[in-house]
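Request: Mind sharing a record?
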Amino acid sequence: MKNIFLMIVGLGLFLNCSSQNYLEPAATQQLTSAVDFTFHAQKANAVGADINAVTNAIPNYTPTRLTTLDSGYTLVIEKEKLTCTLPYFGRLYNSNGYDTNKQSLRFTSEDFTVQKSTSKKGNAVFMIRPNDVSHISMINIEVYSNGKAFVSVDTTDRQPISYDGYIAANETVRK
């Protein structure tokens, strides 16, 4: 009975500790080479210590730097359009008044440049510069072979923020 219990506990630890594959490496390679995919954010990492102090002060909240996100926060990269709908947690250096369009990272760019390279570990790395969005300097995306991805956003008017998530094929809209 003790051996069965240890086997069940060991199996549970093995399954929880194994890395999750979101895509097969061939599918990941195909999406990244075409530079046509959607990043789905699962966690946000606010860089500022003041933001982490505020969230850690919430009663019954587990102290952590990563904030788990609901589904629906994406960064869609297409041939001629970049659509970003990501939340923002951090300090704004420049007051945007009551313009709610500039309080999160929600924008669409049709004039952007993408530089693709490969990291030392073989991951696809993208540096995206939207030319028609004034408050976004650079979006960096690193895509791992299992489909997992890391995105960091540098802006001109607020603290940087990063996201953990995964990539998937863009959804096609049928008319």
User: Anything to note?
Assistant: The first strand starts at residue 37 and ends at 46. The two ends are 60 Å apart (CA to CA).
